[in-house]
Write a structure and sequence with these properties.
single chain, 71% helix, elongated
Length: 121
């Protein structure tokens, strides 16, 4: 573990894992959104925007800036909720329902990892 220097605290390991998982999710959201952009422009654009917001907020969140951490949690939660219609629409393939459920669980894990160290202030 490297020294944080005088007056600087290291980011807790749970928050570090939460940010890494959020970055991986944002990267996969970008890949899927770019792939689905032509047929479904509205939802794909929203998910792409939240993914870019997540990636932009991760560096300041890594330095324990509170607004950035809260932005990462919020953007991940909003991105996960875009998959909720998969549970109620009749023509959604079962694989998409499973992916949407997994994305919701991962968003909850990210929120738990980032918010257990320091609650929202």
């Amino acid at each position: 573990m490297r020294d944080a220097g005088p007056g600087k605290a290291l980011i807790p390991p749970t928050a570090r894992w939460g940010l890494v998982i959020a970055a991986v999710c944002a990267g996969s959201d970008i890949a899927v959104s770019v792939h689905r952009l032509p047929p479904e422009p509205m939802v794909a654009s929203v998910v792409l925007g939240f993914a870019l917001l997540t990636l932009a907020a991760i560096p300041p969140a890594w330095r324990e800036v509170v607004w950035a951490r809260n932005t990462v949690v919020s953007a991940q939660a909003l991105t996960a909720t875009t998959g909720v219609p998969a549970f109620v629409l009749p023509a959604v393939p079962p694989l998409d329902v499973i992916i949407s459920a997994a994305r919701l669980v991962v968003a909850l894990v990210v929120a738990a990892l980032l918010l257990t160290t320091h609650p929202i202030t």
